[in-house]
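User: Sequence recovery, please. Input:
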């Protein structure tokens, strides 16, 4: 069992969990993820590692309650409770080198997984510029942590409630025009990563994205997380989750992400009904 050491609300439906998982914490690197299971009847879900402490033996997971399992985690799992399984670290770590000037773009809950990447790039000697965006101020978090690991932090919100009004792609395009950007990273919703990739492709700058397809076992056996990259089938769990953004078949990825929308909706509605019945 993997004890939840601390649970903290970060933003609307976004929660930080510090979980005891010493073997994962000891081996974790930026860009990797873990697969967790809440209980014996729970589904396996992948969560990118947002932070880790080898000395304390803990990992930090940032979870947005949008589906049945993440909502169940939010409602029923608190400090002192334990998760049934934590498997990791999984996936290939980020390729960290001293590239020069790099840009890290995060959308929504993608702020959490971009943090260790930006930190590792900064430690490697890069000049790191971070762009963090969300729909509104209430969905922003960890801005103070990001500011500590980058040379410049640009914040955007769709509604202008914090930082500059607009999408993250706007300051990204400006930086690509005026700075000698060597490489970029983008983590967030698929549509956001797609347009960041298009902007970088137009500017001739390599961009790395972290893909989040449907995943089951996390070890390359089930094939559920297959994506098309550079015309080839790759598995996000073992070949990724990071890939060159200009090589991703974004239309296919987004179609696969929507493949089980109806089943996901039904599972969430059933869980909400059971939760209401239990608290009535």
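Assistant: Recovered sequence (280 residues):
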């Amino acid at each position: 069992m993997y004890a939840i050491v601390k649970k903290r609300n970060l933003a609307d439906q976004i929660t930080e969990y510090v979980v005891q998982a010493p073997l994962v914490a000891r081996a974790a690197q930026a860009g990797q993820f873990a697969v967790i299971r809440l209980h014996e009847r729970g589904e396996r879900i992948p969560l990118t590692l947002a932070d880790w402490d080898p000395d304390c033996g803990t990992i930090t997971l940032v979870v947005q309650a949008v589906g049945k399992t993440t909502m169940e985690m939010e409602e029923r799992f608190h400090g002192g409770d334990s998760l049934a399984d934590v498997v990791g670290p999984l996936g290939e770590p980020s390729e960290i080198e001293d590239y020069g000037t790099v840009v890290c773009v995060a959308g929504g809950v993608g702020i959490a997984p971009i943090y260790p990447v930006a930190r590792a790039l900064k430690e490697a000697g890069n000049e790191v510029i971070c762009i963090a965006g969300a729909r509104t101020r209430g969905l922003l978090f960890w801005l103070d942590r990001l500011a500590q690991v980058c040379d410049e932090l640009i914040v955007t919100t769709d509604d202008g409630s914090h930082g500059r009004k607009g999408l993250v792609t706007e300051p990204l395009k400006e930086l690509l025009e005026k700075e000698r950007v060597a490489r970029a990273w983008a983590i967030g919703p698929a549509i956001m990563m797609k347009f960041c990739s298009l902007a970088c492709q137009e500017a001739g700058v390599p961009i790395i994205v972290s893909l989040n397809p449907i995943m089951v076992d996390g070890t390359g056996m089930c094939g559920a997380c297959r994506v098309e990259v550079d015309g080839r089938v790759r598995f996000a769990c073992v070949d990724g989750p990071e890939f060159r953004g200009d090589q991703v078949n974004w239309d296919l990825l987004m179609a696969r992400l929507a493949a089980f929308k109806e089943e996901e909706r039904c599972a969430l509605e059933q869980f909400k009904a059971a939760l209401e019945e239990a608290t009535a």
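The first strand starts at residue 2 and ends at 11.
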